Amino acid sequence: MSSEGGMHGRKRQAKVAGQSEEVLAKARAKEQEGIREFLRLTQAAHEKRSSKEYDEQAFGITTTILDSSPDFYTIWNIRREILNHWLGPMTEEEQQDIMNKELQFSDLSIRKAPKSYWVWNHRGWILSHHPRPDWGRELKLVTMMLDIDARNFHGWDYRRHVVASGNFPALSEFDFTTKKINQNFSNFSAWQYRAKVIPRAFPDLAERQKIIEKDFDMVRNAIFTEPADQSAWLYQRWLLGEDKQQPQITSVHGKLDPDGNLILALFLDKEIWVKNSECIQVYAGDGILSTHSATKRGYVTVVHTQLALGGEPALSPLKVVVDHGIFQGSRTGAETSQSVFKIDRIQDVLAESAVQLRLEQSGVAQEASPVNEIFQSVETWKRELEAIQELVEVEPDSKWALLTVVHIMKRLGCHDQQAIQHLDHLAKIDPARKEYYRDYKSHFIANSVSKDKYDPVTRAMSLGGLGLTTLCPAMGIQDSIQTLQLDVSANSLRSLDGLHRFPFAKSVRAARNGIRSIEGVVDLLELEELDLSFNEIRTVDGLDPLSQCRRLSSLHLRGNPIVDAVGHDALKRELKARIPHLARLDDEAL
Question: pLDDT for 131-181, tens place per residue?
Fold first, then answer.
């Protein structure tokens, strides 16, 4: 009996296996037929488009394709071309009828693919071409969709569009975000939308501040409940408002080089994105002097510009006008103004040290629509720091808690050693971002030691062997202005970006790092000696930025891969051709 059972079991398995293969074969055949049909329809849609046959058949083809593949954006484009062709000669009633039918098709598409960008994009197009769009219906629809999936960012984007188009009250949207956040603290889209809604819902600053204080309480509740979720942490940063503060010019220094060119350095209290130097104009007497930028595009805290005075320095006063349009990207919708700096005699900048220009007129950019700015007092920052430190005591491995503590410490300019310890711990618990934490750590290292590392007698800044991975903005402005000799040897620098903070340095020692890029040297207009020994310079082309350092006479490259790859003698010839003013390589004459 057991033998029969065994045979029965084996036969049944074979039978099932046979049936499965047959079913799979049929499924594969059906799939192949479906693919062939899909390709045939796609080709037909393109042929109709090429011949501009915007007929019912072409429209039906797009319906069939999109019904099975709602992410096929090219077919959505063809469908809109057909509809545009039809809408032209139609009456308003006919247009409304066809757009209503298209909305019904969009309803089905959204149910099938609620996270498809192209489906939501098409719906927005429908409403923009609808003669009488029903925005109330759209708001109900998107509310229903966000009830189903509260974190569908396509739905949140569409909701913003609907609210703006239908002119719905911002206060009701504020209440909606409160409901969604209370349902789920991890709803990043709801937090983000709330940040957009608050300024419009509460235009009165005093009333808005009361709401913000309540939101700080809500954020604390969220981060203590779900400390690993980033949503509330990022919203807290918006509430604190640090990134909304307008950069200010702290000083302008000028110096004449031996060729009679005036070098100007504008120092700012935070990094800005610089597009060009056209916002800086220099006047000698009644005439304007042309300028050019020595600062490459990017985020900087010092903006350089250089101009040729020509002949003997004039006796007339020098005036520097800075249009705040240079702060591009620091504030949207801002009206720019000007700051004016002046030096009474050009002879005053002939000294060895750079001279600070006198501020004659201070310009502060004014907000064109004054509803978006949020600023919090130092006391508020300290209060939030204390609250998060309590969380760190309970959750010592909470990445977002530690990172926020560091962020606030940087803003307050305090607790450097504690911040360094937190960043070291973050690098251990979050190794995927360890390089970011190391760069962040450089800020606190430099901030804690730079004041003690400057020798006013020799005008030398010694930052060697500190473990720096980047030359960060924390370094003292006044000391960096006067620095003639900079030593950043034996660190972990990967590039020379950040040298613009030492605009008048004549000697830079950067040996024994891991430097691969030297783009930052173009900001050193008076550089005479550069030591890059024992780094990772690999190609001759990588040394091309040195051609812009027109006073560079001595270069050290021993211990770099380029020396073995090219050969010492060949490298000397190559450098002589590319950098004619260079006199010595590794203490040997070229």
Answer: 999 999 999 999 999 999 998 999 999 999 999 999 999 999 999 999 999
Is the C-alpha dihedral spanning 392, 398, 403, 408 positive or negative? negative
Residues 6+ apart with CB under 8 A from 96: 130, 131, 132
- Tell me if residue 373 falls in helix, strand or coil: coil
- Check the CA dihedral 230-234-235-239 and report its sign: positive
Residue 2: count other Cβ atoms within 10 Å of its Cβ: 6
pLDDT per residue as tens digits for the range 4-38: 444 444 444 444 445 578 788 888 888 888 889 99
Residue 445 sits at the vertex; the CA angle it makes with 442 and 447, to the nearest 5 degrees, is 105
Phi first, then psi: what are they for 410, rounded to 5°?
-65, -45
CA–CA dist 294, 524 (Å, integer): 8
Whole-angstrom CA distances from 314 to 269, 340, 355 are 32, 20, 17
The answer to whether residues 473 and 501 touch, using CB atoms and an 8 Å cutoff, is yes
Domains and CATH numbers, the chain: 40-242 (1.25.40.120), 249-365 (2.60.40), 378-429 (no CATH), 452-589 (3.80.10.10)
In whole angstroms, give the CA distance from residue 255 to residue 355: 6
Identify which of 349, 296, 274, 275 has the alpha carbon closest to the alpha carbon of residue 318: 349
Long-range Cβ contact pairs of 395-403 (< 8 A, separation 24 or more): 395/227, 396/425, 397/425, 397/429, 398/227, 398/228, 399/228, 399/426, 399/429, 399/430, 400/223, 400/227, 400/228, 400/229, 400/230, 400/233, 401/223, 401/227, 402/426, 403/233
What type of residue is 88? G
Distance between CA atoms of residues 243 and 302, nearest Å: 18
Interior angle at CA 271, CA 270 and CA 277, nearest 5: 115
Task: Name the residue among 405, 401, 403, 394 with its Cα closest to residue 427.
Answer: 403
Element (H or E) spanning 160, and its range?
Answer: helix 153-166
Distances (CA, A) of 190 to 186, 196, 223, 439, 543: 9, 10, 15, 32, 49
